[in-house]
Write a structure and sequence with these properties.
By secondary structure, the protein is mainly alpha-helical. The protein is 45% helix and 8% strand. It is built from 12 helices and 6 strands. The longest helix is centred in the first third of the chain and has 14 residues.
C-alpha cells in the first residue's frame, strides 16, 4: 500500500492507468523517458513526478499476514505447493522493491511485466508464465486484486480469486490448499465444549442454538474424545435435549437408552 504523495490520489491513479505508464511497466520506456512523457501529458514537472513515486516507493509495506499464510500453506503441502508472483511492475520499481525487508523465499519464482514485455490482464503474460513454470492451469490458483486480471486467468482455466477481503481470501486458500483433516481437528479443539447445533436463519426467524445431546454423541463416537463434547447425562435415562425442549414441547420424553436420540 502507498501513502499520500505530493501528487493527488486522483492524478496518481490516472498516471498509473495511462498508456505511457503501461509501456513503462512493459519495459518499453526508461524511467527518465516515462517521467518526461507523463509530465507532458499531465502538465507536471518530471522532477515532481519522480519525487512522488519515490515517496510511494518509500511507503510500500509487506502484507505480513498474507506472507505468514503462504508459509503455512507451503509447510503443510510437504513441498508440493509452488508459489509464483506475477506483477505489473517496471524494472526500476522492481529493483527497489527487492530491497524491502520481505521474505522473498516464499516465491519459487517472480515474473514481472518489465521482463516479460507484457502486463496483466493481457493473455500473453499469463501464457509466458504457464510455459515457463510448466504448471497445469486446472490445478492452479490465481489471486489478484483486479477483477480483469482474475477474469483473464479464469479464461485460461486457472481458479481465480479476487483479493478483496483478506479473511475471506485466507479462508478460500485454506479450503483449496490446506489439509481438511488438520483444519477439522483444529476447529474441534478450538471450539471444544461449544460444538452446538444451530438452526438456519431466515426472514421470519433468527438462528437458534440447540442445547441437545445428539450432536454431542455423534462427535464423541467419531472422535472418541470426551473433552470435545458437552454431554448431559441423566440418571438411568436419556433425553435428546440437555434441558428443556426447544422448538417443541418443553417436557420432551425420556428413554431408557440413546435410541431415543437416533
Amino acid at each position: 500500500k502507498w501513502s499520500q504523495t505530493s501528487i493527488s490520489t486522483r492524478t496518481l491513479r490516472e498516471v498509473l492507468s495511462s498508456p505511457t505508464w503501461f509501456d513503462y511497466e512493459r519495459g518499453r520506456l526508461s524511467e527518465a523517458d516515462c517521467y518526461a512523457k507523463v509530465g507532458q501529458e499531465f502538465m507536471m514537472e518530471p522532477d515532481e513526478i519522480a519525487q512522488a513515486f519515490q515517496q510511494a516507493r518509500d511507503s510500500v509495506r509487506a502484507d505480513d499476514e498474507l506472507i505468514a499464510l503462504i508459509r503455512e500453506l507451503k509447510a503443510q503441502s510437504n513441498g508440493e505447493l509452488r508459489v509464483f508472483a506475477m506483477s505489473n511492475i517496471s524494472l526500476p520499481d522492481y529493483e527497489v522493491l527487492r530491497t524491502k525487508p520481505v521474505d522473498w523465499s516464499i516465491f519459487d519464482r517472480v515474473f514481472t511485466s518489465g521482463t516479460a514485455g507484457e502486463r496483466k490482464p493481457n493473455l500473453g503474460f499469463f501464457k509466458q508464465v504457464l510455459s515457463a513454470t510448466g504448471i497445469d492451469p486446472q490445478r492452479t490458483i490465481f489471486v489478484d486484486d483486479r477483477s480483469e486480471n482474475v477474469l483473464s486467468a479464469r479464461s485460461l482455466g486457472l481458479y481465480g480469486i479476487i483479493f478483496d477481503d483478506p479473511k475471506t481470501v485466507a479462508r478460500a486458500l485454506r479450503n483449496l490448499v490446506g489439509d481438511p483433516i488438520t483444519r477439522g481437528r483444529a476447529f474441534l479443539k478450538q471450539n471444544a465444549g461449544r460444538l452446538l447445533s444451530v438452526t438456519d436463519k431466515n426472514d421470519k426467524h433468527a438462528a437458534v442454538e440447540l442445547r441437545e445431546n445428539f450432536a454431542q454423541l455423534l462427535i464423541l463416537e467419531a472422535t472418541n474424545n470426551r473433552t470435545l463434547v458437552d454431554l448431559v447425562e441423566h440418571p438411568r435415562t436419556w433425553n435428546f435435549f440437555q434441558g428443556k425442549g426447544q422448538l417443541t414441547t418443553e417436557q420432551f420424553p425420556f428413554d431408557l437408552d440413546t435410541t431415543s436420540l437416533a
